[in-house]
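User: quick one, sequence for these tokens?
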């Protein structure tokens, strides 16, 4: 089910944009490090408790997506996840919102359910691996009957998120086993239109 955020107060939409811009800063940091430019911010009680970016190339580990990097940081910090919380069966991120530049992939969407994330806001869809509706709706599916579903709202900084991905994909990937020449590639700036307001799934 898709519905509009058009009825949200303007100050709430501005707050979401503010956090998403911080996630975009992390994506820019990833791009500078020759990583797929995805960044995220986890927010609790109006404060950022973790920020992260993709580190898959740096660590040679395909699981080091921005969301999992941040989750690991949160779970390792006893001030954010008090001792005994996990043992009690409580969800460590039940009161936490994630802002991420690209729709979480199937792996990350599953991890987010398992830590009980409250809600996710993301920039652009992940049409190849999206776990919040583009490919599979892991966030709302019955595959995790023991873990609570979460709403996922897209569209915040959508164009910026698409453009930073395009900037990455026209560059040479020096980490590839056999790098392909991309000297003739041109950065495309036209972006397909969508609804003018963010939506949630």
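Assistant:
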């Amino acid at each position: 089910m898709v519905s509009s955020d058009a009825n949200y107060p303007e100050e709430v939409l501005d707050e979401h944009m503010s956090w998403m811009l911080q996630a975009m800063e992390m994506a820019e940091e990833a791009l500078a490090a020759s990583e797929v430019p995805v960044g995220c911010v986890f927010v609790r009680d109006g404060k950022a408790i973790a920020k992260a970016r993709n580190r898959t190339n740096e660590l040679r580990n395909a699981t080091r997506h921005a969301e999992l990097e941040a989750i690991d940081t949160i779970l390792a910090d006893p001030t954010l996840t008090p001792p005994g919380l996990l043992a009690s069966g409580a969800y460590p991120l039940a009161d936490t919102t994630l802002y991420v530049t690209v729709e979480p992939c199937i792996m990350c969407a599953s991890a987010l359910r398992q830590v009980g994330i409250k809600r996710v806001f993301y920039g652009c869809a992940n049409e190849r691996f999206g776990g919040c509706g583009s490919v599979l709706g892991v966030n709302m599916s019955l595959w995790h009957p023991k873990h609570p579903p979460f709403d996922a709202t897209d569209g915040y900084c959508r164009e910026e998120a698409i453009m930073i991905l395009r900037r990455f994909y026209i560059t040479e990937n020096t980490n590839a086993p056999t790098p392909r020449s991309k000297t003739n590639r041109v950065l495309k700036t036209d972006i397909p239109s969508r609804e003018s307001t963010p939506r949630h799934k």
